TrEMBL record:
<feature type="domain" description="Peptidase S54 rhomboid">
    <location>
        <begin position="73"/>
        <end position="218"/>
    </location>
</feature>
<keyword id="KW-0997">Cell inner membrane</keyword>
<dbReference type="Pfam" id="PF01694">
    <property type="entry name" value="Rhomboid"/>
</dbReference>
<keyword id="KW-1133">Transmembrane helix</keyword>
<feature type="transmembrane region" description="Helical">
    <location>
        <begin position="16"/>
        <end position="36"/>
    </location>
</feature>
<keyword id="KW-0378">Hydrolase</keyword>
<dbReference type="GO" id="GO:0006508">
    <property type="term" value="P:proteolysis"/>
</dbReference>
<feature type="transmembrane region" description="Helical">
    <location>
        <begin position="197"/>
        <end position="216"/>
    </location>
</feature>
<feature type="transmembrane region" description="Helical">
    <location>
        <begin position="135"/>
        <end position="154"/>
    </location>
</feature>
<feature type="transmembrane region" description="Helical">
    <location>
        <begin position="161"/>
        <end position="182"/>
    </location>
</feature>
<keyword id="KW-1003">Cell membrane</keyword>
<dbReference type="GO" id="GO:0008233">
    <property type="term" value="F:peptidase activity"/>
</dbReference>
<keyword id="KW-0812">Transmembrane</keyword>
<keyword id="KW-0645">Protease</keyword>
<feature type="transmembrane region" description="Helical">
    <location>
        <begin position="75"/>
        <end position="99"/>
    </location>
</feature>
<keyword id="KW-0472">Membrane</keyword>
<feature type="region of interest" description="Disordered">
    <location>
        <begin position="240"/>
        <end position="261"/>
    </location>
</feature>
Length: 261
């Protein structure tokens, strides 16, 4: 439906989004290592680290030699394995644009816990809907869905540059594309429950993100921020100086593009 490109939502509590950057780096590293393996080894990695509902619910057993981590850990490890470059890229750009502000609202450690819990919720929801499936679930979409839900609850009116239908760049209030995206996940789950895309994992992540942001955000961080922030790319300010200039009376006043107040 759309690709997020940029928001101008500055960080308020942290200087650098270390957890977001580390998660992106880890996902890329795992993909690179997997892509360098032979096809057979890559499939073994997918099976060993992916979340398989039939194994999780006791309807099947993983073949000897394929288990890389204990089965309970696959509720997390699946979120760091991707099926291809575009699968990885689509998830990471969402994390890049929206993850920093959610991390800012929670702090580093709580954001990491939040991310992992959303991933686990996505796997659980997928598993409950497809309990006998032996296909491994991989990808960070469940965790990313939680990040999207948290962002729209924190900053629904912040303007975000999005690429609509892969062609048209538009600056929109965050709630417009994000609520449409969230609605799409529920709609697709309802009409195509057996799709190759795990809409159930997306929905599980969304529900977890919406609930966890209520308890994991910093004290004093409001929900549904009313401030409208316009991306710098659409501001009509040609001056290199600050947007606010001091008046002769010591008060501040807006600095207009043509240099007059």
């Amino acid at each position: 439906m759309f690709i997020p490109l940029h928001d101008a939502n500055t960080l308020k509590h942290i200087k650098v989004q270390w957890v977001t950057l580390s998660l992106i780096a880890l996902n890329i590293a795992v993909w690179l290592l997997t892509s360098l393996e032979s096809e057979q080894a890559a499939q073994a990695t997918t099976v060993g680290l992916g979340y398989i509902p039939a194994i999780a619910f006791g309807d099947a057993v993983l073949a000897p030699g394929l288990e890389i981590v204990p089965e309970p850990l696959t509720y997390l490890t699946y979120a760091f394995v991707h099926a291809g470059f575009w699968h990885l890229a689509s998830n990471m750009i969402f994390l890049w644009v929206f993850g920093d502000n959610v991390e800012d609202a929670m702090g580093h450690l709580r954001f990491l816990i939040f991310y992992l819990l959303c991933a686990a919720a996505g796997a659980l929801c997928h598993g409950l809907l497809t309990m006998t499936s032996q296909a491994p679930l991989v990808g960070a979409s469940g965790a990313i869905s939680g990040v999207v839900a948290a962002y729209v609850m924190l900053h629904p009116r912040v303007r975000v540059w999005v690429l609509v239908f892969f062609r048209v760049p538009l600056p929109l209030p965050a709630f417009i594309p994000l609520l449409l995206w969230i609605g799409q996940q529920f709609f697709m789950l309802a009409i195509t429950p057996d799709s190759d895309v795990s809409w159930g994992a997306h929905v599980g992540g969304i529900l977890a993100g919406a609930l966890l942001i209520l308890v994991l955000r910093r004290p004093g961080v409001p929900l549904f921020d009313r401030q409208i922030v316009t991306p710098r790319a659409v501001r009509n300010d040609r001056s290199a100086g600050p947007a606010i200039a001091a008046g002769t009376d010591g008060q501040t006043a807006p600095r207009f593009p043509w240099g007059r107040r």
